[in-house]
Amino acid sequence: MMKSILWAIMALFCLLSTETSAQDCKGQPGFIKALGFDPARSALSTTERRFMGAVLIELEDPRNTQSRRLKTHQDPSWKSAGYLGAVATDKAGNLYVIPKPNVNMLHNKAAEQNTVHRIDSRTGKMEAFVRLPLKHLPHERNPYGLIGSFFDCTTEALILSSLAGSDQKKELGQIWTLGTRTRKYSEILQNVDAIGVGVYSVQNERRLFYGLARKSELWSVALTADNRPQGKPRLELSLEGLGPRGDDRIKKIRFQPNGRMDLTGTPFYYNLTAPVDGQESIYSFQPDPSSGQWRLIGIR
Amino acid sequence: MNIKNPIPGTVVSIVFLLWVMTWMIFISCGTDRLSQGSTYSEDPAENRKARISRVLLTQKPILLLDIKAEDQEAVLAQDLVVNDPRMQEYYFEKGTDKPMLSEVFSVSPMRPSDQAKGGATCQGKGCYRVEIYHYSTNSMIMALVNTEQKKLMDLSFYRGFQPDLPPHLGELAVWIATHDSTVILEYGGKAPDKNQVRMPTTKTALNRTKCQRSQHLCVAPTFVRENKALWVIVDLTDLKIAGLKWTEVGTTGMAVTERLVQNEKMMECYCEKENKHEQDGWNFSYSLTRSDGLKLSDIRFRDQPLFEDIRMVDWHVSYSTTDGFGYSDAIGCPEYSQAAVVAIEPPYFEPILNGSDTLGFRFVQKYFSEGWPTPCSYNYQQHFEFYRDGSFRPVVGSLGRGCGNDGTYRPVTRIALAGREHSFESLQEGSWKAWEREAWQLEDDLTEYEEGKYFARILSKDKPWLRIEAAKGQFGDGGRGDRAYYYITRRHRDRNEGETDLPTVGPCCNTDHRQGPEKFIESGPEPIRDTELVLWYVPQLKNDNTPGSEYCWAESVLENGVYVAKVYPCFSGPKFHLSQP
Question: Mutation test of the interface with chain A: which of B260, B321, B370, choosing the one with the most A Cβ atoms within 10 A?
Answer without folding.
Answer: B370
